[in-house]
Structures are given as C-alpha cells and as structure tokens.
Amino acid sequence: MAAASQPKYDIAVKGAGSKLGDCPFCHRALLTLVEKKVPYTTTLIDFDHKPQWLLDVNPAGSVPVMKDLETGEWIVDSGTIADHLEATHPDPPLGTLDTSPQIGLDVLPKFKNFITSNPEEAAAKEAELEACLRGLDAHLAASGPYIGGEAPCATDLAVMPRLYHMQVATKHFRDWDVPAELQALQKYMELFMVRDSWNLTHYSPELVVAGWAKHGATKI
Ligand SMILES: N[C@@H](CCC(=O)N[C@@H](CS)C(=O)NCC(=O)O)C(=O)O
C-alpha cells in the first residue's frame, strides 16, 4: 500500500491480510502522513504473529513504528511519529499536541470505562463520557469546525480515531448514541469522515467491535 511513489517511510501498523486493523494510534500516524502528503508504504502487523524485528525495534511490541527509508532511523509511538513529521514536513502545519488545544483526548478512557462497566456503575460512567463529549462540543461550537479551527491540527488527528471507536463501540455494546443536541460534535465527525485522509486510512466497524470485545467490553 503506497500513498505515492518514492516512499520516504515505511510504517508498521496493526492489520492482517491486506486490511488495516483497529488501532487508533496507528490511525493517528497514518492520518498525519496523508494530511502532510508524505509518501509512505505500510507493513501490516498481525497481532497473532508478531515478527521478531518488531520486538527488536520496540520491546513493548506495540505499533505504530515507522522507519525512515533514507536514514534507517526507527521512530516509535504515534505521538513521536506525529512530532517527527511536524518537524520534517512542516507543511501543512498541524502543530504538536503540546501546542494544539488540549481537548478530547480523554474520550478513550471515558468510553472504555463505559463499555466495560458493570450494571451498577454504568450510569456514572455514561455521565462521565457525556461530560467529556459536552466539553468537546462546546469547544467545537465556539472555535470549530475542527478542534484546530478552520483546519485540522495535531489534536484532531489524535482525537478523531478515538471518537470513531467511541461511536461504534458505545452503539454496539450499550445501544448508546452521542446526544443529538451535541450538534457541533456530530457535524465535526461527519466533516472529518469525508476527508481524503480518512477515506484512505479507516477500517470497518466490525473490526472495532471485535477489538473491544477482546478488551472486555460487554453488552449488559
Ligand atoms: N503509546 C503508543 C500506544 C500504541 C498501542 O498501544 N498500540 C496497540 C494497538 S492499538 C498495540 O500495539 N498493542 C500491542 C498488543 O496489543 O500486543 C502509541 O501512541 O503509539
């Protein structure tokens, strides 16, 4: 899979066969490459058969990891990859997470706590998720349509994959929808999901559901 000829990097991401896998961190790194129009190739890592080279490069065994094909340098972790790309390919400027609005990132632990909660704690976890989404909606309503304003910033590329997981997993496991009155948030997700970068990098809802089922999400 190549974004253009003369790849500059090869990025290893979760996947199997020819399909991208359900990793929001890999998704963030891929979105950054595509938004910056950096040519790359992709190596898919089947988590049931992790290659030894991945463990040599990153003893944690996690992806994404990205190799600079000119220098041979490995860049490990989605945040480090995003910062590296910002430094080496400043156009279009996305900023770094540190310099971008600090909002929305905690949607991942919030929805994870909700979809893995037991019946006694579900209402409280739902309320915490909703509060997090309301904060993001208020930011988008005031200074959107993206978290970065008129154009996506580094935070958008980290948050959108998490929101996708949230949307799919809460619907499947809890028959829950983002409250309809959070219109700026609804519009934001729709707007992002028609970007070329999203179309080139997204994976199916079925993979998201299967992934969270493995991580303890249940229907109650
Ligand atoms: N902090 C890392 C986290 C990456 C991460 O946790 N990736 C998961 C997939 S979503 C992984 O590779 N897990 C290894 C495993 O489950 O064996 C980053 O941002 O890149």
From TrEMBL:
Its EC number(s): 1.8.5.1
MF-aspect GO terms: glutathione dehydrogenase (ascorbate) activity; transferase activity
Oxidoreductase recorded as keyword: yes
UniProt-listed SUPFAM superfamilies: GST C-terminal domain-like (SSF47616), Thioredoxin-like (SSF52833)
GO biological process, one term: ascorbate glutathione cycle
Keywords per UniProt: Detoxification, Oxidoreductase, Transferase
Gene3D superfamilies listed in its UniProt record: 1.20.1050.10, Glutaredoxin
The family this protein is said to belong to: Belongs to the GST superfamily. DHAR family.
Protein name per its UniProtKB record: glutathione dehydrogenase (ascorbate)
Organism listed in the record: Chlorella vulgaris (Green alga)
